[in-house]
């Protein structure tokens, strides 16, 4: 039976890979449906929080796994050149990025599970362990692999509609001008019916180069941002969970780090996008403790209540959010996560 099951699993896996590669849009719809299921389960059955987090984490894992399938299929024409470079090491940048992304996807589920099993004490132990592991991994990427100003999570969802065309461009297929503009070689142009008439990706994106090297003061600013979760957890241990000091320390670190990094000249477009997202994240401090309990909670509840009563067909969607807003705020809008 065991000898028969292994080939069967391989065949099923091959069929699944072929289906995902051939139907990326349907795969996206399936992942979105699973996430909606986790939302509607909240509060409707016993242990709904744990179950909904499990389903949500599974959907994120599914998305990450399917992205890797689609990306590897799109790059299948270049597999020979990739394989000549040798096998990736355990502590390669890609493996560390996958580790951080995986922790980002499952950390809430692990925290909720720890609280169910061991109470608040066990939950805080797990939080410290997870955030310490993530900080160490990000510091390794920053100081060893020289990857600066990374997104959170480091591996972002693929643009599945355009990944097939973009991955066909390699460094040997384009010419980079002194201005940085790239031009595709004539003998590497796609067929007429598949041309998008868009410029090929820049050389830094094709190579996966993280951009220009940062100066020492900018590396210190990025290090401050990476260490913010650990500093915040330590200040909570010293001053207490309800104190304003951890909140103020965290927002100060994030603001100073952001202003230092924005002063860098000639940032890559990807780095500018990451810094723009970090700027928007400063607004999230309005829904984080203790600012949420003292100021924003009552205003958000009044607005959502008015919205539910005024707009038809919105009630079934928004009432669960109103009922579990405080619980979700404590679960998702914490300060120790990057």
UniProtKB/TrEMBL annotation:
<comment type="similarity">
    <text>Belongs to the peroxin-16 family.</text>
</comment>
<dbReference type="GO" id="GO:0005778">
    <property type="term" value="C:peroxisomal membrane"/>
</dbReference>
<dbReference type="InterPro" id="IPR013919">
    <property type="entry name" value="Pex16"/>
</dbReference>
<keyword id="KW-0962">Peroxisome biogenesis</keyword>
<dbReference type="Pfam" id="PF08610">
    <property type="entry name" value="Pex16"/>
</dbReference>
<protein>
    <recommendedName>
        <fullName>Peroxisomal membrane protein PEX16</fullName>
    </recommendedName>
</protein>
<dbReference type="GO" id="GO:0007031">
    <property type="term" value="P:peroxisome organization"/>
</dbReference>
<keyword id="KW-0576">Peroxisome</keyword>
């Amino acid at each position: 039976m065991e000898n028969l099951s292994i080939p069967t699993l391989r065949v099923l896996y091959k069929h699944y890979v072929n289906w995902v590669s051939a139907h990326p849009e349907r795969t996206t719809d399936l992942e979105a449906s699973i996430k909606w299921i986790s939302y509607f389960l909240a509060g409707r059955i016993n242990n709904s929080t744990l179950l909904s987090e499990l389903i949500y984490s599974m959907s994120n894992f599914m998305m990450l796994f399917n992205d890797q399938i689609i990306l590897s299929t799109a790059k299948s024409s270049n597999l020979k050149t990739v394989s000549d470079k040798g096998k990736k090491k355990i502590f390669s940048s890609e493996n560390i990025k996958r580790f951080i992304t995986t922790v980002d996807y499952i950390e809430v589920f692990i925290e909720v599970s720890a609280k169910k099993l061991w109470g608040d004490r066990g939950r805080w132990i797990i939080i410290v362990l997870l955030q310490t592991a993530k900080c160490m991994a990000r510091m390794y990427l920053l100081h060893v692999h020289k990857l600066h100003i990374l997104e959170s999570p480091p591996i972002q969802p693929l643009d599945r509609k355009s990944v097939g065309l973009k991955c066909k461009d390699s460094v040997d297929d384009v010419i980079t001008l002194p201005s940085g503009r790239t031009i595709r070689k004539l003998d590497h142009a796609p067929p007429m019916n598949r041309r998008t008439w868009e410029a090929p990706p820049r050389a830094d994106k094709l190579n996966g180069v993280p951009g220009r090297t940062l100066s020492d003061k900018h590396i210190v600013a990025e290090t401050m941002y990476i260490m913010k979760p650990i500093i915040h957890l330590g200040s909570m241990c010293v001053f207490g969970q309800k104190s304003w000091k951890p909140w103020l320390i965290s927002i100060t670190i994030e603001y100073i780090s952001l202003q230092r990094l924005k002063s860098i000249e000639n940032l890559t477009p990807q780095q500018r996008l990451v810094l723009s997202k970090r700027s928007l994240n400063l607004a999230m401090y309005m829904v984080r403790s203790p600012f949420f309990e003292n100021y924003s909670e009552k205003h958000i509840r009044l607005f959502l209540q008015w919205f539910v009563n005024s707009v038809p067909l919105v009630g079934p969607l928004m009432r669960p959010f109103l009922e579990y807003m405080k619980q979700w705020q404590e679960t998702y809008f914490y300060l120790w996560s990057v």
